[in-house]
Amino acid sequence: MTDFINLTMLVCAAIGSMALGVLAAYGIFKVGFALMRPRPAAAPVAVKPQPEAAL
């Protein structure tokens, strides 16, 4: 009976550690992609159109 309880605890610990690793990786990637996301400019820069000269 003790061996079965030890095996059950070992399996639960292995599954729990894998789940924690997956959640940690998800969080790291989520933060990384949020930091890489392009942000809109604070104020749009007005660009004056310049006429083109015909050659």
Characterise the protein shown here.
- This protein has 55 residues and is mainly α.
- It has a domain at 1-37.
- Helix content is 64%, strand content 0%.
- It is built from one helix and no strands.
- It has one helix spanning 2-36.
- It is rod-shaped.
Question: What is shown here, in short?
Answer:
With 55 residues, this protein is mainly α. The chain has one helix at 2-36.
Gyration radius over CA: 28 Å
DSSP strand count? 0
User: Rough shape?
Assistant: rod-shaped
Roughly how much helix do the residues carry, as a percent range? Answer: 55-70%
Poorly predicted residue ranges: none
Provide the residue-averaged pLDDT: 90
**Gap between N and C termini, in Å?**
94 Å
Q: Please work out how many helical segments DSSP would assign.
A: 1
- Strand fraction: under 5%
Main β sheet profile: none
Structural class: mainly alpha
> Which series of helices and strands comes N to C?
H
List the helices and strands and how they pair.
Layout: H1 2-36
Features:
55 residues; mainly alpha; 1 helix
